[in-house]
From TrEMBL:
GO terms for biological process: carbohydrate metabolic process. Transmembrane segments: none annotated. SUPFAM superfamilies: Six-hairpin glycosidases. InterPro entries: 6-hairpin_glycosidase_sf, 6hp_glycosidase-like_sf. It comes from the Bacteria. This is N-acylglucosamine 2-epimerase. Gene3D superfamilies: 1.50.10.10.
């Protein structure tokens, strides 16, 4: 977020590139954010952590000036769908 806002404030393309690359790294880890440190235990029910989609949505909005409009909307829609789908599935 900081590099995105810094790029907006300074117009420095290097900061914009760092912000976009970092965003892509975060998106690449959506399916397994903790990697080998995942605490999932076989045989237990699958729980959904809402932190990542909520943070991702906020991050996308913070760097929206660096993202393609369609890509931004797709990211936001995916985040909303994840939170909505898992929160309503339990009710």
């Amino acid at each position: 977020m900081a590099f995105g806002q810094l790029s907006l404030a300074t117009g420095n393309p290097e900061y914009a590139e760092i912000a976009k690359k970092t965003f892509e790294i975060v998106l690449s880890k959506v399916d397994n954010p903790k990697g080998k440190w995942n605490k999932i235990h076989p045989g237990t029910r699958n729980l959904k952590n809402f932190a990542l989609p909520m943070i991702l949505c906020n991050l996308a909005l913070e760097i929206e000036h660096l993202l393609d409009e369609d890509y931004l909307q797709q990211t936001i829609d995916t985040c909303i769908h994840e939170v909505w789908m898992f929160s309503t599935a339990r009710s």
